[in-house]
Amino acid sequence: MNLNIIGRNVEITAAMQEYISKKLSNTLLRIEDELYASVAVYIEHKQHNIEINIRHINKTILHCKSSDTNLYDAIDDLSEKVERQLIKLKEKEKEKSF
Question: What pLDDT is recorded for position 73?
Fold first, then answer.
């Protein structure tokens, strides 16, 4: 899994990078295939926004966005959203194989 973390007008500290990597790695490692993920963190109107774009090996692209006044709550919410979308993707792939 390749994880790229970008800060737009926000400096990404080591603690932020470690927390994002930890939360998303647990979720993304459930997929056996190679994933490429790009995470963008930015602040807009006193809200911490975090977005992720995931490219799956079969060219499927997942996009999730979360917003909260606390960055760590936004990361937690994003992790849950990504997990739900990946489960939905796996279910669709199982239905196609039948």
Answer: 95
